[in-house]
Structures are given as structure tokens and as C-alpha cells.
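> example.struct
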């Protein structure tokens, strides 16, 4: 029985972790769970799953359910305890945004292996996370479909030798909208991804391909890859989840129908593979797989992310903060879609690069970058 502390239970990934655990109740038990502030959904989850410890991060939140025998709490201290829950074998970090960095660091400090579905942890604080993991000798298991694919191609060994990583991208919901019409697209259009069903923030990041820039940085940290060793390909069918090329010219790909349950489940069961009710790929029906280079005019956020990957230091932290502010503003109808990149670029131009030293430093830069991005609104 593998005991799981699930951080971010109410989001898209968190709900699928719950589904995976329910599929194999003899193998998995969620012993602790935490969410930010969606009290109604969280309370229903807690009543159904009945973990030993349930936490809402927001201090003023209330957990209301039939919770007899379950310890509940609210606030930052309780959230930190859930991230490092003593009786957990693995901490599943499924929260979105900068908050995931703190969750990952607390889990690692407690000596817990982490299943990492939060890309911002490595984008913003990859050096801190990896240094802490090495010190505590804990495993970081990638959950992003692309990074899980690479990990599988490397035979579950993140430090295996390779020549090149090929990250695939769907191109997002707006990949066929004429460039001159992008300024007029609505949040509803940008959220209408043709294949994947994800949270709002990551769906917009998919449309701008900011998330693919994040994944480039993740690959640099997870696999020790140089920026020059990573190539991004737009792959409309989303059947090839990523590929790895080796020194002899061989190229391995992980392929499956689009589903996050496969990488989520594999993070908990590897090296064993169990049924996750995913349909087989019908190659005859699909007929062909297509790949193309990203269009830099269509995806300026992607180009900004690559520039930050090259700069390193605290620049990715500023990038992420500006991205969170601008995407939130777009979803609220405060700015145009094309202004997401403008606000990110403006914030980066006001940011002085520093070497990453501590979580406190990154937290301060995150706050300052948010303030700066908000000024551009």
C-alpha cells in the first residue's frame, strides 16, 4: 500500500490522482490532502476519500462535511504540514503556479519522494529543488505528459545519456487562427483546446506556448540538458508525447492516446504498468503524424521563455509571475490575448537578473514581478 499526500486535490490533476487511487484501492491510499480555497469541492472530496488529514490553505476557509475521525485545519502552517506529512510515502504536488515550489521544498525537506505535476517548481526554483533532492536523496518523478514520456524513453532514469530531447506541443486552441485576428479572440476561444481538457491557466499557457517554454526549462533541470539539446515540435495529433534521440541516431518515442491518467498512474506504479482504461492508438484511423517548428510570430511568449531559459537565474521567476498576472487579466476580460506577451515582456525589461540563492529571495522577486506586471494592466 503506497500512502499519498495529495497537494492540490481540487484541480484537474488532483481530481485525476483521486480517480487513479480509486481504481486500485488495494495499492494506494490518500492519507493527507490539501487545496487552496475551493471549500465546497474539497469538503465533498474529503467526505468521500476520508484521509487522515485535510487542509485548506486559506486561513478563513471552512471545511464542512461529515468529517468524524478526520483531522482538519486551515492556514499556511497546516498546508506546510500536509506537504511534509509524516505518514506519506510520496507527496503528489498537483498545485498550480508559484505555490508549488513551497510544496515541493517542504516535501523534500521531510525526505519524501515527490511526484511533480507542478512545472513552476522547476521553472522558478529548479536549482533549489534539485540541490535539496540530492541532499535528502529523494526521487523527483515527472508527471507532465511530455516529461513522463522522456523519462519513459530513458528507462525511468533521469540521468541516462542522450543526444537530444524532442518536446512535442499541440499548438493550443488558437493554432489556426489568422495572426491578424489573435488580438480579438475571447477567453472562451482560447480555452477551447481541441484535444486536452486542463485547468484554465495551463490551457491559456498552451495557446500562447508559454507552457512549452516552461517545459524546456524543466527538461534542462530534470535531465541535465543544455538548451541546445532541446527541440520543440508542434504535433497536432498529440499522439507522440515526446521523443529522445541517442548518440547512435536511434530515436525513441512514447506514444498513446492523449490522457493525463497514464503519466499520473505511472508516477505511482513504475516500473510496473497497470491498466488505466486508456484506448489503444488506432494508427490506421489516424493515418499520419505531423510535426512542424513553432511559429515565433504566433507564439511570442514561447520566445520570451526561451530567452529566460538562456539567461537563467531569477529571470524565469519574473517570467512566471508576469505570466500568472497577465493570464488572469485576460481570463477576466481586462486585456486582449496579444497583450499577455506585452505585459510579460515589459515586466522582464524591468527585472534585474540575480543568481538564485533562496526561497525567500524567489518569493520576493515573485511579489515584485507581480506588482510590476499589474502596473502594465
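> example.seq
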Amino acid at each position: 500500500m503506497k500512502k499519498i499526500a495529495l497537494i492540490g486535490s481540487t484541480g484537474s490533476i488532483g481530481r485525476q490522482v483521486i480517480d487513479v487511487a480509486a481504481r486500485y484501492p488495494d495499492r494506494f491510499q490518500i492519507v493527507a490532502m490539501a487545496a487552496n480555497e475551493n471549500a465546497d469541492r474539497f469538503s465533498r472530496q474529503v467526505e468521500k476519500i476520508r484521509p487522515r488529514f485535510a487542509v485548506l490553505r486559506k486561513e478563513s476557509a471552512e471545511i464542512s462535511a461529515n468529517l468524524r475521525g478526520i483531522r482538519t485545519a486551515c492556514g499556511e502552517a497546516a498546508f506546510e504540514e500536509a506537504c511534509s506529512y509524516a505518514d506519506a510515502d510520496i507527496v503528489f504536488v498537483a498545485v498550480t503556479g508559484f505555490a508549488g515550489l513551497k510544496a515541493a521544498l517542504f516535501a523534500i525537506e521531510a525526505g519524501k519522494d515527490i511526484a511533480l505535476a507542478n512545472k513552476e517548481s522547476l521553472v522558478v526554483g529548479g536549482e533549489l529543488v534539485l540541490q535539496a533532492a540530492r541532499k535528502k536523496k529523494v526521487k523527483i518523478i515527472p508527471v507532465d505528459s511530455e516529461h513522463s514520456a522522456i523519462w519513459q524513453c530513458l528507462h525511468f532514469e533521469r540521468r541516462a545519456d542522450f543526444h537530444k530531447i524532442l518536446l512535442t506541443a499541440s499548438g493550443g486552441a488558437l493554432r489556426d487562427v489568422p495572426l491578424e485576428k489573435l488580438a480579438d479572440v475571447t477567453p472562451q476561444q482560447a480555452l477551447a483546446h481541441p484535444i486536452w481538457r486542463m485547468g484554465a491557466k495551463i490551457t491559456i499557457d498552451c495557446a500562447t506556448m508559454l507552457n512549452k517554454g516552461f517545459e524546456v526549462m524543466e527538461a534542462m533541470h530534470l535531465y541535465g540538458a543544455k538548451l541546445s539539446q532541446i527541440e520543440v515540435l508542434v504535433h497536432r495529433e498529440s499522439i507522440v508525447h515526446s521523443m529522445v534521440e541517442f548518440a547512435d541516431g536511434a530515436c525513441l518515442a512514447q506514444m498513446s492516446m492523449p490522457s493525463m491518467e497514464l503519466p499520473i498512474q505511472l508516477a505511482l506504479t513504475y516500473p510496473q504498468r497497470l491498466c488505466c482504461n486508456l484506448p489503444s492508438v488506432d494508427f490506421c484511423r489516424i493515418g499520419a503524424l505531423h510535426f512542424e517548428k513553432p511559429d515565433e510570430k504566433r507564439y511570442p511568449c514561447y520566445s520570451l521563455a526561451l530567452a529566460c531559459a538562456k539567461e537563467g537565474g531569477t529571470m524565469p521567476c519574473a517570467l512566471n509571475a508576469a505570466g500568472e498576472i497577465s493570464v488572469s487579466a485576460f481570463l477576466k476580460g481586462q486585456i486582449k490575448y496579444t497583450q499577455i506577451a506585452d505585459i510579460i515582456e515589459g515586466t522582464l525589461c524591468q527585472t534585474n537578473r540575480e543568481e538564485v540563492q533562496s526561497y525567500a529571495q524567489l518569493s520576493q522577486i515573485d511579489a515584485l514581478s507581480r506588482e510590476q506586471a499589474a502596473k502594465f494592466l
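> remarks
The chain is about 45% helix and 15% strand.
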